[in-house]
Amino acid sequence: MTQLTTAKPSAGVGVVPLPNFLIVGASRSGTTTLHGFLKQHPDVHFFAGRQELQFFHRESEYRQGLDAYRRLFCDWQGERAIGDVSPPYFFHGITQDAQGRHRWDPHDDAPARVAKHLPAAQILITLRNPVERAYSQYWKAVRNGKETARTFREAIELELAGKRNEQNSALCWIYKNRYSVHLSRWLALFPRERVEFFIFERWTKNPAELMQRICSRLGIDASFQPSYEPKNSGWTPRSRSVAWMTGGWMGRTSLGRRLRHANRRAGYPRITAADYRLVAEALSDDRQRLETLLDEKLDLWSTPL
Predict the structure, then answer these.
(1) What is the full DSSP assignment across the chain?
(2) What is the pLDDT of residues 162-213, one digit of tens each?
(3) Which of 135, 143, 160, 266 has the fewest Cβ atoms within 10 Å of its own Cβ atom?
(4) Could you tell me the pTM of the whole model?
(5) Every domain of the chain and the residues it spans
(6) CATH number for region 21-131+173-232+287-301
């Protein structure tokens, strides 16, 4: 197993290294929880300003150059593991041509940019049951005032009918859960031994084992045990109108934040068996390809949790 080799700085020497590991996704699959676990480790360093840097897929930030990215880690104190947690890297840059074949846009190709600038980085990817993840993504879009479909089924049927596609909508819950499409890009750019996969439904039952695996991979103390608290639990809006109103700039004001908080209702309705089957069938071919890529069966995704 390849391990990180970041050296401790000599006294008085302050050359800040770039990240040597990235959690690139998938969003709604426990990335915030992983970040919460790892940032407690004394030998792990993250940018303190925000969790998701998104440097390699936001053109406005990428244009500023690698020195601007490096400056985000300027308070580094010699930790061996330096991380970037940016789930949007997982799928950005992948589009389709006129024949429906997938291609990678060089102006938005996060995986290629990461490979160019951080070729020795460890790539960590957590994968959740794609049907459950699609459902969670739908509700996140609802509470952020972005989802116009009144039900999850309506959103899926719009996509299946071709009225939503990745060329004209960010609300493509099937496309975003075609894991094999997105993972094939990362595996084409990074050696398999530097790409580690974690199955959400497994590691959430045994987070201590997960931490040991990650720490061993990063070459840091694997005996360290953080406080294991899940983060970023889902919620639904009491009012879609309020969600829509506070989904943009208003949500960043003090009034908008108060309204948004008052509009929260913990959790969201359980997905129906019929909706689960609809999405699972649409993704069945992709799951087969994913099992081949990972060389493991994913029968635990066969039924709703």
Answers:
(1) -----PPPPPTT--PPPPPSEEEEE-TTSSHHHHHHHHTTSTTEEE-SS-S---TTT-HHHHTT-HHHHHHTTTT--S-SEEEEE-GGGGTTTEEE-TTS-EEE-TTS-HHHHHHHH-TT-EEEEEE--HHHHHHHHHHHHHHTT----SSHHHHHHHHHTTSS-TTT-S--TTGGG-HHHHHHHHHHHS-GGGEEEEEHHHHTT-HHHHHHHHHHHHTS-TT--------S--EEES-HHHHHHTSSGGGGSHHHHHHHHHTEEEB-PPPPHHHHHHHHHHTHHHHHHHHHHHTS--GGGSS--
(2) 999 877 788 999 988 999 988 988 999 999 999 999 999 999 999 999 999 9
(3) 266
(4) 0.84
(5) 21-131+173-232+287-301
(6) 3.40.50.300
